[in-house]
Amino acid sequence: MKLRLSQVTVHVRDCDEAHAWYRDKLGMVKRQDETYASGIRWLTVSWPDQPELTLVLDQRPQFPGDAGVGKQPVFVVDTDDCVGAYELFKSRGVKFKDPPMKEVWGTTARFYDLYGNEFHMNEKPKR
Predict the structure, then answer these.
(1) Rounded to two decimals, what is the model's pTM?
(2) For position 1, what pLDDT does the model report?
(3) Looking at the DSSP assignment, which residues form a beta bridge with residue 111?
(4) Whether the predicted pLDDT of 119 surpasses 80
(5) Helices (H), the chain
(6) pLDDT of 93-114, one tens digit each?
(7) How far apart are CA 14 and CA 43, in angstroms?
């Protein structure tokens, strides 16, 4: 049996604002954007070369003061160039908790999206 993560839901205040941030800051692309009769919008984004893992940008109009906004679990992003990604994202205005640091498990840096959700970016050590 194989198991893999395919979607992560991110509670956002505004789908369009969140989509623009993930597109402009992290280089993600829109995968789906549908609004259902109930008014619920299904908007997903992913990196161009990783369509199998999407973020669902979840704006819940029935809960405008949703306490879940900015209170997500930590997301982990694998990369083959942590320092390069750090420099690129930082140049786009992404806020980092700390610069890349070498650890036993590799090079890592932590950043936040526009709502305060935390991401850990990791580069495995070269062997």
Answers:
(1) 0.71
(2) 45
(3) 96, 119
(4) yes
(5) 15-26, 82-91
(6) 999 999 999 987 889 999 999 9
(7) 11
Q: How far apart are CA 106 and CA 25, in angstroms?
A: 24
Query: Dihedral of CA 60/66/67/69: which sign?
Result: positive
The CATH number of residue 81's host domain is 3.10.180.10
> Among 121, 60, 52, 56, which residue's Cα sits nearest to residue 86?
121
The answer to whether residues 58 and 76 belong to one domain is no
DSSP states of the chain as a string?
Answer: ------EEEEE-S-HHHHHHHHHHHH--EEEEEEE-TTS-EEEEEE-TT-TTSEEEEE--TT-TT-TTTT-PPPEEEEES-HHHHHHHHHHTT-EEEEEEEEETTEEEEEEE-TT--EEEEEEPPP-
Specify whether 93 is located in the same domain as 44. Answer: no
Residue pair 95/50 in contact by the 8 Å Cβ criterion: no
Number of domains in the chain: 2
How many of the other CB atoms lie within 10 Å of CB of 24?
11
Q: What is the domain range of residue 37?
A: 1-62
